[in-house]
Specification:
Elements lengths: L23 E2 L11 H8 L15 H11 L6 E4 L1 H13 L6 E4 L6 H7 L4 E4 L18 E5 L13 H7 L6 E4 L20 E6 L12 E5 L1 H14 L6 H12 L1 H24 L11 E4 L7 H10 L2 E2 L1 E2 L9 E4 L3 H15 L1
Parallel strand pairs: 1-10, 3-4, 3-5, 5-6, 6-7
Antiparallel strand pairs: 2-8, 7-8, 9-12, 11-12
Helix pairs in contact: 1-7, 2-7, 3-6, 8-10
């Protein structure tokens, strides 16, 4: 007998590269703009002596700010170390049965990793040829459902009644709506949490609020589901969020004007980039996110373009996976970064 027989082994999630040199970084869907000035001010005024103390396990200042901003109860609000932590807690809490959890075959690639590490049975449902999610694929017997809407890496958002349709057909399963990109397009399911007690809506401050480095995620759901989440969270780690993240998250959610400004700027740059890509012969669905998932024109290969861009110090994301290995995922940067990206792309494909 070897020690490996008692070790849990999984195939881990592969994050986008984080180069330490100066590059144009369009590969991890981060915000191209700095955090709100209120965040910087709040951190500067923080009582750093309190770093010797454990943070508030209930994260009350952040929970209260989120609840007030979104018009929900504090008891309907849960926070964690980025939406990855929140989603991980959701998997661990809500998917403890023996029926398979359902999610799309092309979606956020952490879902199957969590399922594997927590020993949760799961099945993937294929997207259509144009990367849409079919609600009827999720009508069968299951132990839970996870839908990223807008989806990643495709950037496609489903219509207003989509999540409601899935909820109606699955009253005995928890349905997670992963809304990491909802601030850039699509329609949120948040208004449904008082109507459906099996819905959990998960969001992040990494994209539209420029706090990827602070790791701030949150979830809204029925009070009973939030209690279950907290019970599991306190059983794993009572002090998940550090003091600086709580301070920064509160300040970010309260600066509505700055949030609206940078989201508007990203969307405007996204539309300009989409026009330039179309002119070069790239094809893609309309994006409702802060990235574009695009297929190069023939005879150019996505992998080859990825390599040439990388050699020029421009990083985009390429997935060596079936059905999507002919696409590039291009995060939206500043106007200047996207102009440089398009200029280099023209040198490659023209």
């Amino acid at each position: 007998m070897s020690i490996e027989e008692n070790i849990r082994r999984v195939t881990p999630y592969t994050p986008g590269e984080q180069p330490q040199k100066k590059v144009i970084k369009l590969n991890t869907n981060e915000c191209p703009y700095p955090p709100s000035p209120r965040v910087i001010k709040a951190l500067g005024e923080a009582d750093w002596e309190r770093l010797r103390l454990y943070p508030d396990p209930a994260c009350e200042q952040l929970v209260s700010a989120l609840a007030d901003h979104y018009g929900v109860k504090r008891s309907q609000t849960f926070v964690g170390v980025g939406s990855d932590d929140v989603l991980s807690m959701c998997f661990l809490t809500f998917f403890a049965g023996d029926k398979p959890v359902l999610f799309p075959d092309i979606t956020y690639s952490f879902y199957d990793v969590w399922a594997d590490v927590y020993r949760i049975p799961y099945e993937t449902k294929p997207l259509t040829d144009d990367f849409r999610i079919e609600a009827r694929d999720y009508y069968g017997v299951n132990g839970g459902i996870v839908i990223a809407n807008p989806n990643a890496p495709t950037g496609v958002a489903e219509g207003s009644g989509f999540i409601k349709d899935i909820l109606e057909h699955n009253p005995e399963s928890v349905v997670i709506a992963d809304e990491a990109y909802i601030d850039f397009g699509g329609e949120s399911a948040l208004s449904l949490i008082n109507e459906y007690d099996n819905l959990a809506v998960v969001r992040t401050m990494s994209k539209s609020r420029a706090l990827a480095g602070m790791r701030v995620g949150y979830c809204f759901a029925n009070e009973r589901l939030i209690k279950y989440l907290n019970d599991v969270r306190y059983s794993v780690n009572s002090y998940t969020m550090n003091m600086p993240a709580l301070v920064a998250g509160k300040a970010a959610i309260e600066d509505v004007g700055y949030f609206s400004d940078i989201v508007g700027r990203v969307k405007k740059t996204r539309e300009w980039t989409a026009g330039e890509l179309k002119a070069l012969g790239f094809t893609f669905n309309e994006s409702q996110t802060n990235f574009i998932f695009a297929k190069p024109p023939a005879p150019y290969e996505a992998s080859d373009i990825f390599d040439k861009l990388r050699q020029s110090g421009i990083y985009v994301r390429y997935f060596r996976k079936p059905r999507i290995d002919s696409y590039l995922r291009i995060s939206i940067g500043t106007d200047a970064e996207m102009q440089t990206f398009i200029n280099r792309l023209k040198e490659i494909v023209l």
